[in-house]
Amino acid sequence: MLGGELQLNQVYAEVTPDSKSAIVEQLKAAGRKVMFVGDGVNDAPALTMADVGIAMCEGTELARQAADVVLLKDKLYGVAETRQLAQLAMSTIQSNIKLAEYINSGIMLAAAMGWLSPAVSALLHNGTTLAVLGRSVALKRPR
User: Fold this and answer.
1) List of residues 6+ apart from 52 with CB closer than 8 A
2) How far apart (Å, rounded) are the C-alpha atoms in residues 95 and 85?
3) R_g of the chain computed on alpha carbons
4) 17 in Cβ contact with 6 (< 8 Å)
5) With 0-12 CB in 10 A as exposed, 13-18 as middle and 19+ as buried, what is 55?
6) What is the spatial distance between Cα 28 and Cα 95, in angstroms, rounded to a whole number?
7) Which of 18, 49, 106, 110 is most buried, taking the most CB atoms under 10 A from its CB?
8) What pLDDT is stored for residue 68 in this prediction?
9) How many CB atoms lie within 10 A of CB 81?
10) CATH number of 2-75: 3.40.50.1970, 3.40.50.1000, 3.100.10.10, 2.30.110.10?
11) Quick one: 80 exposed, middle or buried, by C-beta within 10 A (0-12, 13-18, 19+)?
């Protein structure tokens, strides 16, 4: 089940239009983070109230406008794929930041100690930037 794969605490399905917004409101009032997935006109209020509103690409225009995210494929499994991509992106961003911090700190230390000339320091710094960009671009390659 998708809820288990996404490690969600609770999943509501086949809910009446009137109770959708009420459920979102109750969960938020209890301090919960709420993700709502919908595709119809009657989903728009709940999509805007939720912390994250996700609409299906073939849903109504109102649902797509109200949502924070619109899936490119009209399949609910896209929610799981989107989460996996987001986790991969955040992991890469965090490791790129650490990598750049460590390498650039080493470059600055070596330059301060007189072991590197300003020109070499600048080249190494720019090389670090290109390496970080290369790691990020590599994510676009199909696996």
Assistant:
1) 33, 34, 35, 36, 68, 69
2) 15
3) 22
4) no
5) buried
6) 32
7) 49
8) 94
9) 13
10) 3.40.50.1000
11) middle
The two three-digit tokens of residue 48, written as one number: 């805007």
Please name which of 131, 139, 68, 65 lies closest in space to residue 96, comparing C-alpha atoms. 131
Query: What does the pLDDT average to over 9-19?
Result: 84
In residues, how long is the chain?
143
Query: 95-133: per-residue pLDDT in tens?
Result: 999 999 999 999 999 999 999 999 999 999 999 999 999
The pTM (predicted TM-score) of the whole model is 0.67
Is 25 exposed, middle or buried, given 0-12, 13-18 or 19+ CB atoms closer than 10 A?
Answer: middle
| 40 neighbors 60 (Cβ within 8 angstroms) | yes
Alpha helices in the chain (DSSP H): 2-5, 17-29, 44-49, 61-66, 77-112, 118-137
